[in-house]
Structures are given as C-alpha cells and as structure tokens.
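Before relying on records like the one below, remember that each one covers exactly one chain. Contacts with other chains, cofactors or solvent are not represented anywhere in the record.
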Amino acid sequence: MEYKKDDTVKLLRDYPTSNPSIVVKKNDIGRIKAVTEKVIFLEVVIGSNRIDLEVNINDIKFVERTIEETEECPICNSNDIDYGVCVPKGEQLFYPWKCNECGASGKEWYSVEFIETVCDEIK
C-alpha cells in the first residue's frame, strides 16, 4: 500500500514522545503529514495535545483515505466502480461503492439541499 498525505492510519505499537507523561498507544489514530520511503510523519491528537510523531512505515495500518472527487477510487484512481443504492442520513446521503480494480470499498457522501415542493395531483 502506498500511503499519502492526509491518510488516516492506526498505530500498531506504542510510541514514546518527548513529553514523558504522554505515550502514543497502540491503536491510536493519526493523520499523515508527510511520507518518505521508510518513515511516516504523523499528527496524533491525545486529549488537548497535538503530537508530531515519526514512525516506521511497518508500524501503521491504513484506516481511511478521503478525496474530493466523485466516481474515482481513492486508492487506485480507477473509474471502474460499482455503486449501491442511495442511503439517506438526515441532511446527507451516501452511495456505497466498490472498486472493481483494487477491491477497495467505501461511501461517497453528498449533502442534500431543499429546492422546491411540487404538487403533481389535486383531488
């Protein structure tokens, strides 16, 4: 897996920080700030503390990637996507999707805005 800036990842082991009273724990979630070949630079929020952390690429697990494009897989950029049925959630809705290229799946979210009411029958 190729990690990208702003991916959300989970730590697979504890990491000490420069503050001895704060330890970033296994399963804590972080957002990638930068990626090199072997090192990932994360921002992890612990309570009110924002912690910058340098971790080994083998010590993280992918959780989520968000992109602002539709009809494109956020993992492999393929357009070969199958969509499920629209699911309303309050003032939002989503379409579940699955990429036929890499097998990734997720939800494509939309906001819903009222336009007008139309009467199509009078009794």
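The chain has a mean pLDDT of 87.
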